[in-house]
Amino acid sequence: MIRYLTELSLKAFDDAARNIPYQQIQSELFPGVDLWVRRDDLIDPVISGNKAYKLIYNLLQARDEGRNTIVTCGGAWSNHIHATAAAGQRFGFKTVGIIRGQRPPELSAMLQDAERFGMELLFVTRADYRRRHEPGFVASACRRSKVCAEDYWFVPEGGANRQGAQGVQLLGKVIQETGPVPFEECWVPCGTGLTLGALASGLETTKAVGVAVLNAGQSIGESASKWASLGRQSREFELIGDCHHGGYGKSSEALVTFQEQMERQVNLVLDHVYTSKLLYALAQRLRSTSLLQESCQKAILLMHTGGLQGRRGVTKTG
Ligand SMILES: *Cc1c(COP(=O)(O)O)cnc(C)c1O
Question: Which conformational region is residue 81 in: left (phi greater than 0), alpha (psi within -120 to 50 degrees), or beta?
């Protein structure tokens, strides 16, 4: 069954989140655990995974404030740009994407989608893009825009703002209330770290574990800590920093083989940037600890955060 987010309301979104299936995984690659995957890749075919959660409160606030344009920024394979463009088309917002780098002769499949969804793309040089956190960056890019009026709503790269965190907190709460078993751990892939931190703050009895998909030193953990302390109380989480396979969008032979093996064995499609690194990291952890744990079948939840549109970029990265 294909699921669509059809209406912009908190009630409709919450219902959609509560109806996301949990899929049990049995595979010798994950010994000694009771393993489940929460299929947030299914929340919508084009407003994918965790990006839908980061957008919901942004869209609701933009609408409540009467702003009809959403402006955001990202790279040529950003799942967030893709989701924002799709959500804008679905719910009646104009969208503007400030994109890092020169406009290429041929747009990535992802940017072609974004344009097809009606997003206006404004390309800025990499040097200018580095100033994206400074005041004036958006206004300056928007001077070149045809649609960007004064009263736009700006969503930072990756959906990393307070409204984004609020949506992911909601996800944590929904997991706590709808999980088929009480999970001991909930594993999630990390780019900015917002999803890890905000999830940790939304979960009550489950520990959040993040797998960094890029080599970003301390910054992912710092950002996750910031978002984890937004809740009523700051939550503990764990971040695995050494399973990025060479960096963002990079891969290794072991990872490619693993992803193929997983997709063959279980009814699950993964992307190479986020979710395959997540499953790989857990399999690796279990290989090194399974002897100790055989007697206690820990219940672990893996978050399928979506990102499948990015599979089309597999030959263009690495
Ligand atoms: C963006 C993204 C993430 C990372 O989320 P952060 O909050 O930036 O850490 C994980 N998985 C997928 C599929 C994504 O698109």
Answer: alpha
CA 277, CA 288: separation in Å to the nearest integer? 17
Task: Give every CB contact of residue 88 below 8 A, 6+ residues apart in sequence.
Answer: 70, 94, 95, 117, 118, 119
- pTM passes above 0.85: yes
The number of the ligand 1 atom at minimal distance from the alpha carbon of 41 is 13
CA–centroid distance, 248 to ligand 1, in Å, is 11
What digits encode the pLDDT tens for the residues 213-242?
A: 999 999 999 999 999 998 767 788 999 999
Q: Tokens 């599979």 identify what position? A: 311
Output phi, psi for 164, to 5 deg.
-60, -45
Q: What is the pLDDT of residues 7-17, one digit of tens each?
A: 999 999 999 99
Q: What is the pLDDT confidence band of residue 58, given thresholds at 50, 70 and 90? A: very high
190 Cβ below 6 A of ligand 1: yes
The residue behind tokens 């040097």 is: 127
Site to probe by mutation for ligand 1, drawn from 78, 162, 166, 195 as the one with most ligand atoms within 8 Å of Cβ, is: 195
Whether 278 lines ligand 1, by a CB cut-off of 6 Å, is no
